Structure formats: structure tokens, C-alpha cells
Amino acid sequence: MNYNKVVLVGRLTRDPEVKQTINGTIVATFTIAVNRSNKRGNDEVDFIRIVTFSRLAEFVQNYLTKGRLVLVEGKLRINRWQTSDGQNRTTPEIWADQVTFMDKKDDVPIVPEAENEIEYDELFDNNDNDEPPF
Amino acid sequence: MNYNKVVLVGRLTRDPEVKQTINGTIVATFTIAVNRSNKRGNDEVDFIRIVTFSRLAEFVQNYLTKGRLVLVEGKLRINRWQTSDGQNRTTPEIWADQVTFMDKKDDVPIVPEAENEIEYDELFDNNDNDEPPF
Amino acid sequence: MNYNKVVLVGRLTRDPEVKQTINGTIVATFTIAVNRSNKRGNDEVDFIRIVTFSRLAEFVQNYLTKGRLVLVEGKLRINRWQTSDGQNRTTPEIWADQVTFMDKKDDVPIVPEAENEIEYDELFDNNDNDEPPF
Amino acid sequence: MNYNKVVLVGRLTRDPEVKQTINGTIVATFTIAVNRSNKRGNDEVDFIRIVTFSRLAEFVQNYLTKGRLVLVEGKLRINRWQTSDGQNRTTPEIWADQVTFMDKKDDVPIVPEAENEIEYDELFDNNDNDEPPF
DNA sequence: TTTT
DNA sequence: TTTT
């Protein structure tokens, strides 16, 4: 009974950083600048940290660079942690499950999100009446 | 450079229908009534057809019933097809990749959507400075 | 207890059409082609009809043209109607409440969506302790 | 060319707090707990701060209470501020433009979001051919 | 009926 | 064809 979805379009503030977890999973992180569309200028920005894993992280590593415009879909996480002197801190970040280019540069592969890989027209026998395909 | 996302909350108008594709994939479909929140009454409704596959379809088959309130996330598809006498028709439907209960009945399992199954706290060595965990 | 949200990114298949309602409200409609990102080519498309009103319709009329890439946010409506010989038909369309360019051409005004027009920094007295601004 | 949208479903951790800005605008804030749907238990939660203004804030003040399940739609803001001793801090929050109940208690008014208030059926002259209403 |  |  819970739901958490974020969709953002913005530009990379730097090239992504890539690390590996202790069990070998690749993790790519980057920050996007999302301008707040206010009428008189564009001085307000949110800098939002994006985290990607595995196959999506490899895509990010290989193709995303500073300045590119991307659409990011994922979940908002509010990470809670402590400083060395025991103060509580909070870091927001998006765990992305989809990243799509919104600008064209060189040709770049589409990153297939995790989903049903079924071909629609192969699904059913033809029907020959006035009903929709399902 | 394309994106397609739909999020709906509404009630099942009937129990789901379950079929199988010619290669054995299970397909469960149902319609939800999504009321348009107009101020003076609630007479306007959109009846929206939802299609689910595989594991999600099994979940739908096992737990969704007429009248239940669900959140559905997926993609809008406008299917084009022809009647037997050659007329063009169009059927909108949502190919869901997530279905979540919004009402409580008996206890029911969470359906895990396809996603990164990584445990956050196992990811990295502890850091002992004033930096966030990544 | 209902919710209906659609977010799409796609290209205009033609220039918008503009009409007026019987009481003078301007209505601009257009269709966007939203490609389904399948791996081996890009042959599958959804053609989705978008409807805008009033101030947003004027923006659409003035700045949107065939081929432009836009992000559209709105509600899915399944309109039910009858043909002249009494057959039931159904037409899906998106009633947009936000349209944003995703490609750059000439400079074009931002269309302010209906929202809270409050300036953040004018909101409160300065606080001079360790608390966030609210 | 920027976009920022968040949709969350979760429960209020406390009753909302209500303040006023220096120019009289009412501001209601509250925190929702959004559980991460992990398979083996439900120990992980994100506590996400929600900010509402004006009419929506009044609705929040009058009807939302601790424990209620709500759907919140809005924009993610990463507020940057400084502590009294000059340290930089960051506070994430959602500026909501829609809040909807997801549980039923007593009957409660629908809060109309800012949008086009046009009645569909009053829009056009009747058409009596095989075309959809627009 | 369709966009790149 | 329709849910609360």
C-alpha cells in the first residue's frame, strides 16, 4: 500500500562516477541539475543525486557525460547516516530504474528497462470478428 | 528519446480474465473505473483496460477481485486493429508493470516489481568521515 | 481515492488544430508519436491524441509544430460516443495540464503550469539556528 | 526543457504543522512514511517531508491526521541552507500540488487541484457523424 | 492519417 | 458491459 516514483529531466553536472560494491556490483552515480521553471530567469536549480546499478550503471558509464540532457525515472530515497562525531544527517537520492537521453548527439543504444519482453502480435491466434485483439 | 508512463488508482469493475498466449505466457486483464474528481458528484468515470503478463498476471489472478482499489503503473498503448469488414479501430490499454493494493482486506503478499534487488547497507565498506554513504 | 496521471515524450505528427468551444474557450489538439523502445528497430509506435485548453492551448497554437519533441503531462480520458448508426465507440485522449519542449529550436517562452506562485526566499523570516528553512 | 515530478503513497507520521508566511500565506507541512516494499519484512522506510500552500494547506490542516494513507503529487526540492556555524546542509522536501486520500474514514471533501474546470459535454455542438466529439 |  |  505504498508507492514511490520520481520522474526528472535535467542535465548532468559532471561525468558519472563509477564504483563497485564489495560483491562486485557496478554502481554509477551522477548529479543532474533540474531548473525550476520560473518566469523571470532561471536562477533556481535543484541538484539531484542519481544512483544506478548493474546493467543500467554500465550504460551510464559508457554513454552519459557532463552536460547531457536525460530523463531519469526511479525512487526517492532519504538516506539517514551519522557523521564521525555522531550527528544525524540525511541525504536524498534517486535510485534510478530508467535513464533515457533527451538530446541527440551521436547514435547511442537504447537501454532496455526491465520489463515484459513479449511481442504483441505473436501473442494470440488471429481473431476474425469485431473484437479487439484481446 | 521517448517516454510513456501512466499511473492510475481505481477499482476493478469485475474479476480479472485470464488467458494464455500461444507460447504459454499467462495474460491477465481487467478494467478499472477511475472516477474523475469533479466537485459536484461523481458521475464521470473512465473505464480503463489493464493488461498484465507472467508473474504479475499470476498475482492479479490470485488476489485481485471486483471492487478492489488498486494502483496501476504501466505504459499506454493505442492498439490499432481492423474489424472483419475492414474498418479501422483503436483500443487503448495499459500494459502494467506494477499493481499495488490501495485497500486492506486479508493479508496479501507484496508483488515485487522487476528491479535492483541490492541491499543498501551491504553495499560498501563503512566510511568513517563526514561523507554520505556513497 | 482515485488518481490519473500520464507522462509522455514524443513528436508531433502534424501542426496542432485549434478550435473554439461554444462559449469561447480555445482548444488546441495534436497527436504525438511515442515510439516503443524495442531493441531491434523502432517500428512500433503509439499515436496519442492530446487536448489542451485556454492558456496552454494558446501556447500550443503559437509554438508547437510538426516534428517537435515534447513532454506532455495530463490525464487519460476514454471518451465514449456513438456513431450515427448507433454503434458505441471509444476514443482515448490525454487532457494535458503541462506541455514542455524537449528539443531546442528558437528561444521560446516557458509555459507556467498552474501552481503555487510563491517565491521561496520571501516566505519566511531568516532563521539563525541549525534548523532547515521551514 | 526540465521536468520534476514525484508521486508518493504513504502514511502521515504525525498531525500536520501549520504556519504562515510573512505575507499571510498559509503553509502546512507533514511527513509521510513510505515503506520500501522489500520481500522479507518491512523494516525499511523513507520519511519524506511534504510542504503545501494556500488552499491545499487548508485542506491538509482540516482533514489530514497522523496515520492516514495519502497519495501526494508534487516536485522534489533539495533545499540548501547553512547552519549557524556556517556548515552547508541540504533538506529534501516535496512541494505538493495534489494530496488525495487513499483510505476511507469519515466522508471528506475532494480537494480540487488547480486545473481546467471545463465541462466536457458543454464544449461543442453535437456532431452527428462518425467522428469523435472533437 | 502520422513523428525523428 | 462496468467500481465505491
The CATH superfamily title of the domain at 6-79 and 94-101 in chain A: Nucleic acid-binding proteins
Oligomeric grouping of the chains: homotetramer
The strand count of chain A comes to: 6
The chain-level mean pLDDT of chain A equals: 83
CATH architecture of the domain at 6-79 and 94-101 in chain A: Beta Barrel
Largest interface: A-B, 47 and 47 residues
Main β-sheet of chain A: number of strands, strand sense, barrel status? Answer: 5 strands, mixed, barrel
Question: What would the principal axes of the Cα set say about the shape of chain A?
Answer: globular
Poorly predicted tracts of residues of chain A: 114-134
Series of secondary-structure elements of chain A, N-terminal to C-terminal: EEEEHEE
- Find the structural class of chain A using helix and strand composition: mainly beta
Based on CA atoms alone, the radius of gyration of chain A comes out at 20 Å
